[in-house]
Amino acid sequence: MNEHDLKSAMQDVMVASSPPPPMDPRAAVELGRRAQRRRQATWGGAVAGLAVVAIAVGAVLVPNMTGGGGDDVAQVGAQQSASGAPSVTATASPPPSVRPTPTGTDVPSDTSTPWPNGQTDRTATSGPRADKSVAVLNDLVSALPSGLKAEDKTRVGYPDYGPMTRTQSQFADYAGALEVWEYMAYTPVTRAEAAGVGKLWIQVETKGNSRRPGEACAAATAMPYPVDGTCQVVDVDGNQVGVVTGGSEGDLEQAAFHRHADGTLVIVAQSRVYRNSGHQGMAEPPLTSQQLATIAANPEFRLD
């Protein structure tokens, strides 16, 4: 086949083929509109699907946001696990921070219950601790020299001041593994064949106490009481007791301070007048300085 024969054959094929359709502008526009409508329908379906998904997710999340707490975390985790995403494991709320107490129990650090033995405040009103302040009063009464007597009285003209004889057991602080306690008692005293009512006051601070550091006059001047007092050291069988005598009349005029070998601090104080009692005072202090110091050094008052 030569070039002329090839050209003739190609012309015969073109003639035998169907001619192209005529160009109609209206038909072309209609075809374009149909294609646009198809694209819009496709996007609308996709948006509607997203809206359905968003509603479903909101139905899961909204109740959990309003509920709060660990259970809600567990519900969200369950939904995520079902969808194939990593699950979230709910954990219990962490316990409040605690501090160890000497008894080994845990007490919330917010100090909502800082007192030992189930107390609601510092004062023990019953039980062994309350009994110890009563024992302190009884030991004080037993230590009085002959002729001086502890005698309970009623106030005259001072109805709001309470009883004239009183005891109190009060928790002070922790000192390492120790509970530091203060046992206090006071009582009116009278002297045989002599007019007037005086006052004796005692406080035992158990070992571990630190409010009045030092011994004898060092502990006495750390109080500081009696008012404007001067201290002298009084020897009681080799024990050094600081005795403070007040420079002016006050509720307590003289006090003896003794720290025992185990750290227990005993303070014994006295006054010729029992103030706010309505009773006449004594002409002389109930005890001498030596007698006051002897009571403070008495080993009976070493308590825990």
Choose one word for the global shape.
Answer: elongated
**Helical residue percent?**
25-40%
How many E strands?
A: 11
The structure class reads: alpha+beta
Tally of separate domains: 2
What is the strand content? 15-25%
Q: Strand count, sense and closure of the main sheet?
A: 9 strands, antiparallel
Q: Number of DSSP helices?
A: 6
* pLDDT < 50 runs, ≥5 residues: 13-21, 45-113
- CA-based gyration radius: 48 Å
What is the first-to-last residue Cα distance?
A: 132 Å
Order of helices and strands: HHHEEEHEEEEHEEEEH
Oligomer: single chain
Mean of pLDDT = 75
Set out the fold topology.
Layout lengths: L2 H14 L8 H43 L2 H13 L15 E3 L5 E3 L14 E2 L3 H15 L5 E3 L15 E10 L2 E14 L6 E8 L10 H6 L8 E7 L2 E7 L8 E6 L5 E7 L17 H8 L8
Helix pairs in contact: 2-3
Outline:
The chain is an alpha+beta fold and 304 residues long. It has six helices and eleven strands. A hairpin with a 5-residue loop joins strand 1 and strand 2.
Describe this structure in words.
The chain has 304 residues and is α+β, with helices and mostly antiparallel strands. It folds into two domains: 28-94; 115-301, no CATH class. Helices cover 33% and strands 23% of the residues. The chain has helices at 3-16, 25-67, 70-82, 128-142, 216-221, 289-296; strands spanning 98-100, 106-108, 123-124, 148-150, 166-175, 178-191, 198-205, 230-236, 239-245, 254-259, 265-271. The strands form two sheets. Strands 3, 4, 5, 6, 7, 8, 9, 10 and 11 form a nine-stranded antiparallel sheet that branches. α2 (25-67) packs antiparallel against α3 (70-82). It is elongated and about 130 Å long.
